[in-house]
Design goal:
Structural class: mainly beta
Radius of gyration: 13 Å
Number of helices: 0
Strand content: over 45%
Order of helices and strands: EEEEEEEE
Helix content: under 10%
CATH architecture: Sandwich
Number of domains: 1
Number of strands: 8
Largest sheet: 4 strands, antiparallel
CATH topology: Immunoglobulin-like
Shape: globular
Oligomer: single chain
């Protein structure tokens, strides 16, 4: 049986940049028992443009995807031995 994991997202933040606005998506990945999951591949795709950025969760399960173009995103988290997690509608 494949284990499940839970992705806790922090609310995306907007930061003013010199040439415009950028966004940041950050969070912590945990399994269904609350244990942190390092090594999870986090991929975000801007749904309007297909712009993609990837990060890997650190030893505390944390990840940060900074300096993203502002817009709606789809997030996918994958780790071998776990079901993939997908969240859409991140604005």
């Amino acid at each position: 049986m494949t284990a499940a994991f839970i992705l806790l997202l922090l609310i995306p933040t907007l930061a003013a940049a010199q040439a415009g606005s950028t966004a940041q998506i950050a969070g912590t990945v945990k399994d269904d028992t609350g244990g942190v999951l390092p090594g999870v591949t986090i991929t975000v795709t801007q749904t309007a443009t297909s712009f993609t950025r990837t990060a890997v969760s650190d030893e505390t399960g944390g990840y940060v995807l900074p300096n993203l173009p502002v817009g709606p995103y789809r997030l996918e988290a994958t780790l071998q031995g776990f079901r993939s997690y997908v969240q859409t509608g991140i604005v």
